[in-house]
């Protein structure tokens, strides 16, 4: 997760600037890693990779263009410096001695600074900031960060960077810090679901919902596995009575994990299945009920009504929205609408293992104002990771 995002941020802001050859080697490594992944992925993934490669190339073209501009600026600067030195020799200048700045240690962005180049501080003017943010915006959008989040980040960074005096060697760090803090403000730390279940007297009910194929059934099985590791007993409610084979899929997980599955026939009222499962848990001293539901789009009002009924009947302690990390803005839009219509307490973001971008996590956090609890990171029962906002920052190279 976040691989392509991080790489581009690094190119733009310039942190961890490297020797050109080293960069080449790393690029090759990244490419060969991508190739390896490509082999395992289905065709749709391959297409995404190709799309991404095109965007990447475009971005590099832009960078090259900008670098040419910078070079021109540098030449201009050199000429000016020469003139100043000559003037100084002639005794015309009375200002302080220019402070030597190690350009190699500075990022790509710092070279854009137009204001006082002779002093140890820089002040970013609006125009330069806009020029920079335009590039950053492209990277953010390309990596699934929603427009509303981009606007928030722009506002935050503008406030902290424009027309503020910043010590030259601190510039890169300051840019990283502002971006980091803006993102951390969005990503709220997850609540501890395990503790919440343990603390509750009686049965703890969780309803899972999201669109078809987002990973609801698989995630329920992963979560049951985690509950078992924490010595919390649970039962499954096969409340997806709509999609063919959905009950059998849940039963298979139930068999593997030795968990009871409460079911009725296909076409039965899902709320009734949920009700049965809670009754069963109460009667058998089982701590948690995990309710699997049919996938639904937020646009289908009959299915939403059905969801409302499940919620009315089961009175869940947690409503968890399952979203696919790779679907980007679609997932964000769904989360927003479900949060407004049904109300959600938290999100589990699946398929993070096949998402190189990662911006969906930031966007969902912002539009729902709800925490991401876990990331689905593969297809085995153990592939469920507790979500940690600080890890996002580390993965983006901002810490
Ligand atoms: N790579 C990967 N695949 C996943 C993950 N979670 C679910 N899947 C796969 O996504 C597909 C749909 O999952 P399913 O649980 O049936 O989705 P549902 O329709 O929402 O219940 C299955 O092939 C799962 O194995 C994940 O975290 N990573
Ligand atoms: Mg399912």
Give a description of the structure.
This protein has 399 residues and is an alpha/beta fold. The protein folds into 2 domains: 3-186, Four Helix Bundle (Hemerythrin (Met), subunit A); 193-388, Rossmann fold (3-Layer(aba) Sandwich), CATH 3.40.50.300. The protein has helices at residues 3-13, 20-40, 43-89, 126-142, 147-161, 171-186, 193-199, 216-229, 246-257, 270-284, 301-314, 329-341, 359-368, 389-395; strands at 121-123, 165-167, 204-209, 234-239, 261-262, 288-293, 318-324, 346-350, 372-376, 384-386. The longest helix is centred in the first third of the chain and has 47 residues, at 43-89. The structure holds guanosine-5'-diphosphate (GDP) and magnesium ion. Magnesium ion binds at residues 216-217, 240, 246, 292.
Report the top-level CATH class of the largest domain.
Alpha Beta
**CATH 2nd-level architecture of the largest domain:** 3-Layer(aba) Sandwich
Q: Topology as H/E string? A: HHHEHHEHHEHEHEHEHEHEHEEH
Could you tell me the radius of gyration in angstroms?
26 Å
Task: Please give the count of helices.
Answer: 14
Mean pLDDT: 81
Helix content: 40-55%
Main attributes of the structure:
binds guanosine-5'-diphosphate; two-stranded antiparallel ribbon; elongated; alpha/beta; Rossmann fold; Four Helix Bundle (Hemerythrin (Met), subunit A); 399 residues
Which helices and strands, and how do they pair?
Elements: H1 3-13, H2 20-40, H3 43-89, E1 121-123, H4 126-142, H5 147-161, E2 165-167, H6 171-186, H7 193-199, E3 204-209, H8 216-229, E4 234-239, H9 246-257, E5 261-262, H10 270-284, E6 288-293, H11 301-314, E7 318-324, H12 329-341, E8 346-350, H13 359-368, E9 372-376, E10 384-386, H14 389-395
Parallel strand pairs: 3-6, 3-7, 4-5, 4-6, 7-8, 8-9
Antiparallel strand pairs: 1-2, 9-10
Helix pairs in contact: 1-4, 4-5, 5-6, 8-9, 10-11, 12-13
This protein binds guanosine-5'-diphosphate (GDP) and magnesium ion (MG).
């Amino acid at each position: 997760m976040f691989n392509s995002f991080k790489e581009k941020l690094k190119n733009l802001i310039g942190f961890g600037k490297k020797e050109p050859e080293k960069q080449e080697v790393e690029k090759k490594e990244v490419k060969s890693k991508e190739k390896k992944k490509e082999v395992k992925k289905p065709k749709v993934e391959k297409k995404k990779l190709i799309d991404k490669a095109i965007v990447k190339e475009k971005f590099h073209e832009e960078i090259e263009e900008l670098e040419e501009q910078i070079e021109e600026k540098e030449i201009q600067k050199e000429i000016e410096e020469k003139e100043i030195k000559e003037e100084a020799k002639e005794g015309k200048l009375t200002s302080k001695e220019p402070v030597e700045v190690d350009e190699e240690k500075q990022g790509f962005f710092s070279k854009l600074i137009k204001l006082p180049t002779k002093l140890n501080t820089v002040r970013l003017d609006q125009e330069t900031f806009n020029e920079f943010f335009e590039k950053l915006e492209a990277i953010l959008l390309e990596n699934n960060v929603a427009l509303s989040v981009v606007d928030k980040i722009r506002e935050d960074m503008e406030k902290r960077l424009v027309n503020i005096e910043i010590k030259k060697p601190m510039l890169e760090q300051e840019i990283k810090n502002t971006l980091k803090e803006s993102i951390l403000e969005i990503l709220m730390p997850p609540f501890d679901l395990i503790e919440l279940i343990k603390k509750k007297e009686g049965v703890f009910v969780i309803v899972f919902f999201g669109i078809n194929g987002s990973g609801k059934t698989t995630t329920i099985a992963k979560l049951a596995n985690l509950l078992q590791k924490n010595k919390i007993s649970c039962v499954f409610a096969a409340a997806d009575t709509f999609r063919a084979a959905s009950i059998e899929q849940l039963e298979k997980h139930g068999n593997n994990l030795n968990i009871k599955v409460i079911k009725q026939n296909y076409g039965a009222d899902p709320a009734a299945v949920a009700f049965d499962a809670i009754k069963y848990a109460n009667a058998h001293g089982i701590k948690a009920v995990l309710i699997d539901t049919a996938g639904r789009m937020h646009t289908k009002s009959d299915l939403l009504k059905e969801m409302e009924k499940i919620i009315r009947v089961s009175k869940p302690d947690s409503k968890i929205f399952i979203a696919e990390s790779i679907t980007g803005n679609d997932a964000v839009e769904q989360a927003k609408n479900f949060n407004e219509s049904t109300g959600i307490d938290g999100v589990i973001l699946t398929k993070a293992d096949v998402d190189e971008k990662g911006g969906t996590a930031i966007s969902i956090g912002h539009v729902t104002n709800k925490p991401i609890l876990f990331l689905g990171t593969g297809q085995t029962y153990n592939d469920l990771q507790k979500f940690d906002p600080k890890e996002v920052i580390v993965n983006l190279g901002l810490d």
